[in-house]
Specification:
Helix content: under 10%
Shape: globular
Strand order of the largest sheet: 1-5-6-7-4-8
Number of strands: 8
Distance between the termini: 19 Å
Radius of gyration: 15 Å
Strand content: 25-35%
Order of helices and strands: EEEEEEEEH
Structural class: mainly beta
Oligomer: single chain
């Protein structure tokens, strides 16, 4: 699992490519199956938004733990405290903007059941990833 810290880049150049409407992208030499690209959820309706809570001992269901997942996993931490989780498998990817508990530990992840109409088809597609 790769962890990327998103810093305030106003005064410092970055080694990655900055693109409008994105937070972070790999160098342009990466191919489509291995490139990491994090979209800004304010500009992209394709991002699944979720809230996370730490797992308590009083629940009888399996917590979400990212570490055993076999797909590619990258986490982008923004200065605002939002954790962007990018799950990748072949040419498919799923980006989840997570607020709340740390995604580095087992947690409970909640998504809205009612989403704005402009996000609905992306929300349904993300849940079937």
């Amino acid at each position: 699992m790769n962890i990327i810290l998103k810093e305030d880049t106003a005064h410092r150049p970055r080694p990655s490519v900055e693109i409008a409407s994105s937070f972070f992208a790999d160098a342009s030499q990466s191919d489509a199956t291995s490139a990491r690209f994090f979209w800004d959820p304010r500009d992209c309706a394709r991002i699944l938004r979720a809230a996370a809570e730490p797992v308590g001992l009083d629940h009888d269901f399996e917590p979400l733990d990212l570490s055993p997942l076999s797909c590619g996993k990258d986490i982008l931490l923004t200065p605002a405290g939002v954790q962007h989780v990018l799950l990748r498998e072949d040419c498919r990817s799923l980006q989840i903007a997570v607020s709340g508990a740390s995604v580095l530990r087992p947690l409970r992840l909640y998504v809205d059941a009612i989403v704005p109409p402009r996000h609905l088809k992306f929300h349904v597609a993300a849940r079937s990833f």
